[in-house]
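Retry 2 of 3 after timeout on previous attempt. Resubmitting structure tokens to design endpoint.
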């Protein structure tokens, strides 16, 4: 197993490195091309920020697949049509996202483009062939049923990721967590049970992790560039492709033989058949946000695609959490659900797993109820964390400088009154230099 792990690690590093190195030039290109839309009422950031980060992420995707196609254990994946199907759908959705980031595309047009990209993948063989249902067994699907189910899964996953892309580093971090959990499950199916049909999903998860890790340093708060729809729809499609591959391509009867019985196989397939109902339990938080947004907007008589400030991350800011804390809380819940599902699939009879999930859920609820609590890092970690989390930050600061900074922040609050906890100091932090620069007209 050592050789495949090294090959996956190499693919991950190449994808992340290419994405990271391309993001800087892409940022300059986005600024030159004018892909810096004005700040909208629902936005959290205060200054125009370039988009089109999806260009760098698409470059990382191509580089990762190119490297994997020349590796000993991974090149067998390219004997199937699934990588080609993924690239075809990804290219279409990426072009659509680039057009939207630059000029803006109507919501219904984007929905149609998403369905076309999913249809292209289906035509090349990346489709759901059967559904494992507990207590019933394997249910084969007709070509029409498989096509409709695949398109629905892809569209829901793309929009779930797109909806959650509202804070710096949120979407890329949550998708990276989801991809890591899904990689663990798919890798276990391939090398644990010897099911080669799980190999494409394993590769897609590794490439997706590399895309997110390479882009995340540029996208952390305060973000220097946004991935835009070209990036959010792209990573959503890659994640959906992995879900379709491992769900609809892996024969449950083969897993039945490998796992040692129908009951064991049914439990082992838990993180696989649930994605058909809620596209990937590993992104249950974005999916929940998507469903809540649709219900909320429909109840208010608005279009389900109308943008607002009612997403989960917006509500975290409203109750007083800082920008960074809101992102970390969303990370926490995503990791809890994702790795909890994977742990349950590995050993569903262990009561310790259930108790651990319950305990961590309680910790998460406590964090939600303490928005004003500021954590302090241990002394040994102070060099690698932001200054706001250092214990010595308050002790070494100059009192006169602190008073001047407080007066400046107060004066800024008087100049721009804003609702507390939404775009105030707790949500954004000290960004006065960006505000002054924006007023002076010197944009990036």
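Retry 2 succeeded. Sequence:
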């Amino acid at each position: 197993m050592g050789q495949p792990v090294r090959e996956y690690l190499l693919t991950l590093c190449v994808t992340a490195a290419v994405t990271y190195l391309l993001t800087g030039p892409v940022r300059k290109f986005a600024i030159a091309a004018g892909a810096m839309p004005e700040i909208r009422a629902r936005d959290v950031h205060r200054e125009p920020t370039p988009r089109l980060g999806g260009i760098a992420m698409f470059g990382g995707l191509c580089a990762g697949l190119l490297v994997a196609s020349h590796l000993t254990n991974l090149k067998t994946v390219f004997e199937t049509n699934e990588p080609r199907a993924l690239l075809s759908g990804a290219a279409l959705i990426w072009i659509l996202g680039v057009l939207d980031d630059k000029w803006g595309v109507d919501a219904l047009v984007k929905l149609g483009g998403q369905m076309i990209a999913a249809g292209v993948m289906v035509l090349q063989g990346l489709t759901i062939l059967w559904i494992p249902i507990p207590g019933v067994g394997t249910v084969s699907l007709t070509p029409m049923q498989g096509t409709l189910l695949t398109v629905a899964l892809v569209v829901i996953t793309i929009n779930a990721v797109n909806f959650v892309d509202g804070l710096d580093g949120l979407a890329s971090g949550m998708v990276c967590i989801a991809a890591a959990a899904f990689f663990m499950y798919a890798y276990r199916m391939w090398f644990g049970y010897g099911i080669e049909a799980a190999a494409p999903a394993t590769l897609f998860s590794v490439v997706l992790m590399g895309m997110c890790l390479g882009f995340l340093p540029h996208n952390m708060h305060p973000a220097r560039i946004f991935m835009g729809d070209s990036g959010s729809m792209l990573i959503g499609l890659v994640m959906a492709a992995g879900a379709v591959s491992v769900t609809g391509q892996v024969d449950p009867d083969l897993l039945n033989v490998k796992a040692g019985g129908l009951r064991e196989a049914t439990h082992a397939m838990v993180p696989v058949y649930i994605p058909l109902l809620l596209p990937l339990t590993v992104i249950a938080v974005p999916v929940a946000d998507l469903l809540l947004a649709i219900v909320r907007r429909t109840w208010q008589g608005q279009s389900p695609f109308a943008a607002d400030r009612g997403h989960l991350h917006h509500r975290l800011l409203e109750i007083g959490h800082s920008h960074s804390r809101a992102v970390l809380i969303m990370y926490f819940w995503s990791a809890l659900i994702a790795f909890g599902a994977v742990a349950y699939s590995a050993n569903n009879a262990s009561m310790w797993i259930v108790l651990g999930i319950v305990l961590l859920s309680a910790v998460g609820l406590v964090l939600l109820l303490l928005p004003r609590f500021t954590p302090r890092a241990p002394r040994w970690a102070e060099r690698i964390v932001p200054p706001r989390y250092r214990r010595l930050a308050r002790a070494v600061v100059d009192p006169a400088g602190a008073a001047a900074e407080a007066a400046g922040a107060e004066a800024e609050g008087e100049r721009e009154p804003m609702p507390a906890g939404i775009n105030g100091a707790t949500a954004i932090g000290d960004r006065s230099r960006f505000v002054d620069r924006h007023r002076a007209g010197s944009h990036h």
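Attempt log closed. The first strand starts at residue 130 and ends at 133.
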